[in-house]
Amino acid sequence: MCGIAGWVDFGRDLTGERPTLDAMTNALASRGPDARGLWLAGHAGLGHTRNSVIDLAGGIQPMVAEQDGKPIAVLSYSGEVYNFRELRTELEGAGHRFRTRSDTEVVLRSYLEWGADCGSHLEGMFAFGVWDIRRQELVLVRDRMGIKPLFYTRLPTGVLFGSEPKALLAHPAVRPAVDADGLREVFSTAKVPGRTVFRDMHQLLPGHTLTVNADGLTQREYWTLRARPHTDDLDTTVAKIRSMLAEIVTRELVADVPLCTTLSGGIDSSTVTALAQQARLAMGDGPVRTITANFVGYAENFRPDDQRDTPDAPYAAELARHVGADHTDIVLGSADLIDPAARHAAMVAQDMPTMLGDMDTSLYLMLRATREHSTVALTGETADEIFCGFKWLHDPELVAAETFPWVASEKRHRGCRKGHGRELFDRGFLDKLDMTRYYADNYQQTLAQTPHQDGESVVDHRMRELSYCHLTRWLPMLLDRGDRLAMASGLETRVPFCDHRLVEYVYNTPWALKTFDGREKSLLRAAVRDLVPKSVLDRPKSPYPVTQDPAYTHALHRELAAVLADPQSPVLPFLDIEAAQQTVKDTSGVTHEWHTRSSTEMALQFNAWLKHYHVEIAL
Q1: What is the pLDDT of residues 386-416, one digit of tens each?
Q2: Are 180 and 432 in contact (CB under 8 A)?
Q3: Structure pTM?
Q4: Is 3.40.50.2300 the CATH number for 234-537?
Q5: What is the pLDDT of residues 528-583, one digit of tens each?
Q6: Which fold has domain 2-221?
Q7: Helices first, then strands: H and E counts in the chain
Q8: Annotated catalytic, 498?
Q9: Catalytic residue among 2, 260, 388, 469
């Protein structure tokens, strides 16, 4: 897993611009702690930071391909292509010769063989740029599900690209300007595909390529989710899902560095862990390493809330014993979360404030601690999006809502009168953003794009719409968050449930099969019932833990009081000062609840973001 950056400009010779390309690449240093490289010639420059995972000696980048002793193409690549061995054999049959064992060289040779169509031959998670010296053309490619990020911005005669916005912001031509649309993305939990927070900056859409030459930019789709008939009965469907998961997890275990699974004790991470253990034993390897993170005293003092019925630790320990894993517990204290440096690092990792508050900070701390044990971690992320595990998908009122169901569910929470994370912001400011209209437009666009099957029932039609909402508006937020918080510490995370073949198969499975036993994630439970303990199999969904320690809330209030007392705090013009002051004074205990507390965290993050990035707000 790596960081990529690049600059192509057909209006100038970039040979003397090494300091700028260097700054763009250095901005991604955390994504590649093992090596850094630059390639610069003529109209193009590519940068790369490397986190070595496969062929530690041979995968150095940017990688150059030669013909008759002359360079013909240069690659800067981030990700893992899991079918690289099969592709290598195919490419060797077509006459290509390899110098390394790396998947990087397979990607480069795939481009030389298939051009911009190479993405359709690659399976895995990837984002890369190839500068074709012969054609004087840049080709950007992003994986089908958008697991790996890829940002770009147009210049008058070229383009900049990078794994994260901070790489583009390191270029003097890019200003950290944010308009109303960008602010809507900051406060949204339903992302508009391709849109970013910063003005004139874009994300390459999943399953797309972008070709840049002297004539301009051309974007093309090479993969999209399609509706297809599902003819398998229940038993066959369950068997296929089990077979697919086993094959996916097995090939995602390939690494030349220490690897683990992050284990929460839920069915998703337990499935990945059990299958990984099975595969490792079949290959003659040692037990899979598992890592669980929790807060000091969390299990002992746990109080059920509207999202979590049980603590993670007992279930994770039971699963680890059940499969015989090499298990490690990481214990976080409230002091770790209270530390402003940790919360600041989580914000900078994502280049924006978020409304998830200590869920972000605790995940960042957990992933950072995981990196001390492993370089690669397999996670159970995205199973809920694929197998319809969210509670709101099984609530008739929310299913019938004329908006995204998770947005509709916000209104049920105390402290969400203005919307999740927005309670301390000025009503006039929020009126300018008009999040209600933003969500309505995005929702209608999502419904119009949803691929349907002819003749499907009313129920299947509706649930297919909601599944598509999750895959295209919710999932991108989750994937970007996971990648950025992990790569902030140089940890590569892999998401087996996000394999596009599995996504396609389950998307087209009728709702009656997906809920055949009357529960969420029925098909996943059936597919792994022999692998995990019954207690884990029957455990309801429980989101990532948040602290329940009042000391954390008190620390946030002290910070907010300091922000309010400083007339130079850049967030003040955007806040409802009276509401913020009342929050600081509140001793009722309501502010300890996560949905209420997240508004305080959002106000603090927004202030830190404006200061750190010198954001120019253009409303």
Answers
A1: 999 999 999 999 999 999 999 999 887 755 6
A2: yes
A3: 0.95
A4: no
A5: 999 999 999 988 776 666 666 788 888 899 999 999 999 999 999 999 999 999 99
A6: Glutamine Phosphoribosylpyrophosphate, subunit 1, domain 1 (3.60.20)
A7: 25, 19
A8: no
A9: 2
